[in-house]
Design goal:
about 230 residues, mainly beta, eight-stranded antiparallel beta barrel, eight-stranded mixed β-sheet, 18 strands, about 50% strand, globular, MliC_sf, Lipoprotein_YbaY-like, lipoprotein, MliC, signal
């Protein structure tokens, strides 16, 4: 009996191996496409390899509140079911879905079936007497500041290399809905820095939600006192 089953067991193992090494196509809201291959490294830790724009990027699995988050430096791939987010620290965050059809058009979510992610949008201006350094970076965070006795909890982060961009600078960030606790106080914080030197920061709290729904956030950053006149 066992001998009769061996060929079928071998076939099953082969099919599973093929499925694990299969490249899954994704298409994003900006029209871009890439493929993801989910495997493990030499010691059995889960990882994904992204084939995107002629590049091959391998990201290890890291802890996440929900879904599967793969991250290495500025590269971040967060998947939940057929939905996924991808960012590389340079371009705007992409919202993607499994498939190889026409470019993804994201319709407004129906009230009865909310999306897995909350869409936070806004613009950032800054008051400067001189031009920013060419290597200045804008760091934007969506955070939960509901606990007065603890640091703000970062829910999403986006880094934009300014490189001469003119203000206001528009941003869009997607936050995992499962991270929004019932009593959460969701705000947006931003800063402009050069390396470890802080140049601009917000000195006002900017709520990201109004009556539980995302609101367009318009921020103005103030120059840090120690950098004025430079």
């Amino acid at each position: 009996m066992i001998r009769r089953l061996l060929p079928f067991l071998s076939l099953f193992v082969f099919v599973v191996a093929q499925a694990q090494s299969e490249r899954i196509p994704y298409i994003c809201d900006d029209g871009s496409r890439f493929e993801a291959k989910f495997t493990t490294d030499d010691v059995g830790r889960p990882q994904t390899t992204l084939f995107i724009g002629g590049r091959v990027i391998t990201l290890p699995l890291v802890p996440a509140a929900s879904g599967a988050l793969y991250r290495d430096g500025d590269f971040r791939f967060h998947s939940k079911g057929d939905d996924a987010l991808f960012e590389d620290g340079k371009s705007p965050m992409r919202r993607c879905t499994v498939g190889d059809g026409p470019p993804l058009v994201v319709p407004p979510p129906a009230p009865s079936v909310p999306s897995s992610f909350v869409d936070i949008t806004g613009s950032i201006a800054y008051l400067a007497r001189t031009a920013l350094p060419p290597d200045a970076v804008l760091v934007i965070r969506v955070q939960d500041t509901s606990r007065a006795d603890a640091p703000a909890r970062t829910l999403a982060e986006q880094r934009i290399e300014l490189a001469g961009q003119q203000a206001p600078i528009r941003f869009r960030m997607l936050v995992d809905r499962d991270l929004l606790r019932k009593n959460a106080r969701i705000t947006v914080a931003a800063r402009i820095q050069r390396g470890s030197t802080l140049l601009f920061i917000n000195d006002t709290s900017y709520p990201a939600l109004a009556d539980g729904k995302p609101r367009h956030v318009e921020m103005v950053l103030k120059q840090v006192a120690s950098n004025k006149g430079r």
